[in-house]
Amino acid sequence: MDFELGIVLRATDEHQANAPTDLAKLAEERGLDLVVVEPVPADGAIDSWTLAAWLAGATSRIGIGIDARRPSAPDPADSAAPYPSVIERARESIDRLAPGRVMTDAATWVVASADSDAAALAAVAQRDGRPVVVPVNSREELERIAALVPDRTRAKGRRRSAAARARRVAGIDYDGVPESLAETAVEPGDPEYASVASTYLRGGQPGLVLRPRTPDEVGDALAFASRHPELPLGIRSAGHGISGRSTNKGGLVIDVGAMDSIEVLDVDRRLVRIGPGATWKRVAAALAPYGWALGSGDYGGVGVGGLATAGGIGFLSRKHGLTIDHVRAVELVVPDGRLVRATATENPDLFWAVRGAGANFGIATAFEFEVSEVGDVGWAQLMFVTNDLEESLRRYGELASAAPRDTTVFLVTGQPQDGMARLQLYGMVDNPDADTVVERLTPFLELGMLAQQQVVMTRYESVMALAADVGPEGQHGYGEPHSRSAFIDELTPEFARDATRMLETGAVHFFELRAMGGAIADVSPDATAFAFRTPAFQVTAMGARDDRLNRAWAPLRGHMDGLYLSFETDRTPQTLRDAFPPRVLDRLRALKRRYDPHNLLRDNFDIDPSGATSLAPAQTPREAIA
Ligand SMILES: Cc1cc2nc3c(=O)[nH]c(=O)nc-3n(C[C@H](O)[C@H](O)[C@H](O)COP(=O)(O)OP(=O)(O)OC[C@H]3O[C@@H](n4cnc5c(N)ncnc54)[C@H](O)[C@@H]3O)c2cc1C
């Protein structure tokens, strides 16, 4: 019979300082599962938390048990009684030292008598269903217990200690995780949990992260998720989602980051096949040796999966179109587990929907793109200071829209300080001639006092490479981003005025204008679910507080038409209607009924197939403002 077996150590001063550590290390070496530190309230004894921390540092796998049920309030009558806040802090600290290994409730293990034999231990385990621990005082006693470690040769999948299992979230069928995913799945009690819990901008505590490596495994993950329809479900590629909730609290995440291959299919047609987990930085680096590039967003850390299912407004868009305009095929695992290929001729409806509203229809497992020939580009980072923000914004609008389509200049600013605003301009000129680059950028120099400048001839790859790498420790975003997004047809003086007023409120710390036009507008609004082809700019505002952001943003609404979902965090019904014009939304809903009738995929601009939009909270921000 397989059960968890451990020892109990006493934190007394009878031991040499190293004796408990030696015993704990030996217990780990001998395959035991748990070492419980028994508190000894006597003066002179080593404090049990201190000993537990010491043992945690000296070992790497074994669970550490410490009986520390938290008192609800300090006890003024007992000077030795622990303070709840001190206990909580100690618990958090030791959990950081030994993530997922610490158990702090004596009810989660059972103590058997010191002279128990194998049969007695098995009987206790069978009766109780908890890990069994036996008090030991010496190496000899420990060796005797270690010889009774149950035979686990027949146990399947990844084994988790009772400490790790104690972190499981109620309502998730952990034991029912499909065999194909069990080895790579991450639970709250696993050491690698901290590296998968949060995303770039959002903190999270999912109950289970499934990490499929193949389309079949994605199908298994979706089948598992469909057995938990009441739980939040996040779909993750590289974790840079702003609108998409690719993490959550207590729910499931399907992370396809491992599917990140980049392959050239046809050199003559410049056809490449890319997995959703690749980042744009890696894509740019892989295409550069061929003299190619695929326009993406402005940050190379963003993932292919999230961006290529939404739009992709970037530095090459005015010349080469949106990222979705280069998609020639998408392969998706749809909620019923089928792998479906969508192209202009195969499943064309789905192909239309995926390019703009893809997150609602399936989990993309591969994209085929026809990429562009892109040589050296001019790349500019300019910083201006202006005391007339309104006029600078207005003029920027004129210049960015009038620029030839090889020139794309984005503007970022925030709250003016002491009447002075700082404007950051990020511009790319897709032209290998340095004189032309200078000519294209020179008009922008009138936007204010030039405080910093860097203009270089480089490759698209180098610009994407400016993004930081995410290492094995993962992303560590926290909280919840608040962002508003919209399109404007033209940057009018009235918009510049109202945007300036909004920035002066201080409610917006990040405001970006992405220049559109050019090749984006060459594509018919009916060709993809991304229907806003004619706006001159995409506008984003981020703020620390949603209510303040809404109040500041409200006056801008009159200037706007539609929104780009990738930068919007509001989940009100109106927002869904802003993201998709009525005829597009109707068509998407009809398709949703076909591909996802139970609305499993809903973490990003949820298109409820029933039409009763599930984005609705009780009150919309607009009502809140009124
Ligand atoms: C710093 C930064 C800069 C950005 N700059 C730009 C920019 O210049 N232009 C632009 O267009 N966007 C930009 N974005 C927005 C970005 O494109 C989206 O947030 C995108 O969704 C992130 O993709 P991801 O795979 O990294 O994110 P994830 O968090 O992994 O995914 C986000 C959402 O996309 C969906 N999704 C992810 N993978 C899949 C999949 N395989 N199949 C189906 N749906 C999936 C899910 O709904 C998910 O919640 C930027 C974002 C950040 C954080």
UniProtKB/TrEMBL annotation:
Cofactors (names): FAD
GO-annotated molecular function: FAD binding; oxidoreductase activity, acting on paired donors, with incorporation or reduction of molecular oxygen
Residue span, FAD-binding PCMH-type domain: 202-374
Pfam families: FAD_binding_4 (PF01565)
Key words, A-Z: FAD, Flavoprotein, Oxidoreductase
PROSITE patterns noted in UniProt: FAD_PCMH
SUPFAM superfamilies, per the entry: Bacterial luciferase-like (SSF51679), FAD-binding/transporter-associated domain-like (SSF56176)
UniProt-listed InterPro entries: FAD-bd_PCMH, FAD-bd_PCMH-like_sf, FAD-bd_PCMH_sub1, FAD-bd_PCMH_sub2, FAD-linked_Oxidoreductase, Luciferase-like_sf, Oxid_FAD_bind_N
Coiled coil: none
Family the entry assigns: Belongs to the oxygen-dependent FAD-linked oxidoreductase family.
Protein's name according to its UniProt entry: FAD/FMN-containing dehydrogenase
Organism this protein belongs to: Microbacterium immunditiarum
Lineage of the species this protein comes from: Bacteria, Bacillati, Actinomycetota, Actinomycetes, Micrococcales
